[in-house]
Amino acid sequence: MENDEPGAVFCIRSGRVKLTHSLADGRGVIAALAGPGAFLGGRPILLGTAHDLTAVIVEQTQLCVLSKEDFLEMLPRDAGIPLQLARQLGSELSEAYRKFSGAACRPPTQRLAELLLSLCQTHGVPTAAGIHLQTNLCQEELSELLGVSRRSLNRALADLRDLGLIQCRRRSILVLSTIALYDWLALDS
Predict the structure, then answer these.
(1) Are 154 and 133 in contact (CB under 8 A)?
(2) How far is it, in rounded angstroms, from Cα 157 to Cα 151?
(3) How far apart are CA 12 and CA 26, in angstroms?
(4) For strand 17-22 and strand 54-57, is the pairing parallel, antiparallel, or unpaired?
(5) Does 92 score more than 80 pLDDT?
(6) Cβ count within 10 A of residue 25
(7) What angle do CA 175, 179, 181 make, to 5 degrees?
(8) Is the dihedral of CA 16, 183, 29, 158 positive or negative?
(9) Ranges of each domain in the chain
């Protein structure tokens, strides 16, 4: 939970977790979605700070838990853990930069296309019809992830659907062709 002192790190074995941050006005924003292999809680332990995000399970999830003390004791002994943490922290930083620049510069349809391409890599399930994204996120949560209103999200979804790039279903999206989506994004940027 946000503002709690960290007592452990968690590694996601299976399932998905959304990471949220509370704004001053009481609203929450989704900072990221984490899936299998992600470490949660390591950054605040390494920085000696409280958690700045709240983790919420969005589907059946299995976690490995390692106490703060065991985690800190293990770091100097196992070279693989610091390397994986460094990669994850670098990825989080890149994602934060992408979101920041995207929020300021790109229209919602472009930001949605970028998010869908990113989700295809991390949460996509290849099918004969395309890449199935079963995020278990409602439209409000998806709009929070993009930093747009629900109305803007609906327009962006309709734009991509009308272009024949996606199909929308309840709590899931089918990306019909990632190549076509990349091509559209390159032309539209």
Answers:
(1) no
(2) 10
(3) 28
(4) antiparallel
(5) no
(6) 5
(7) 55
(8) negative
(9) 8-102, 106-188
CATH topology of domain 106-188: Arc Repressor Mutant, subunit A (1.10.10)
Closest C-alpha among 147, 152, 153, 151 to residue 173: 153
- Report the alpha-carbon distance of residue 148 to residue 144 in Å, rounded: 6
Top CATH class, 8-102:
mainly beta
Place of tokens 């509370």: 22
Amino acid letter, residue 60: Q
What is the longest distance spanned by two Cα atoms in the chain?
54
* 135 strand-pairing partners: none
Separation of alpha carbons 171 and 173, rounded Å: 7
DSSP 33-89: EE-TT-EESHHHHHHT---SSEEEE-S--EEEEEEHHHHHHHTTT-THHHHHHHHHH
If you search the block for the tokens 């693989």, which residue do you land on? 80
Range picked from 18-32, 63-77, 88-102 for highest mean pLDDT = 63-77
| φ and ψ of 96, to 5 deg | -65, -45
What is the amino acid identity at position 22? Answer: S
Contact 157, 115 (CB under 8 A): no
pLDDT in tens, 134-184: 777 888 888 888 888 899 999 999 999 999 999 998 878 999 999 999 889
**pLDDT-based confidence at residue 97 (cuts at 50, 70, 90):** low
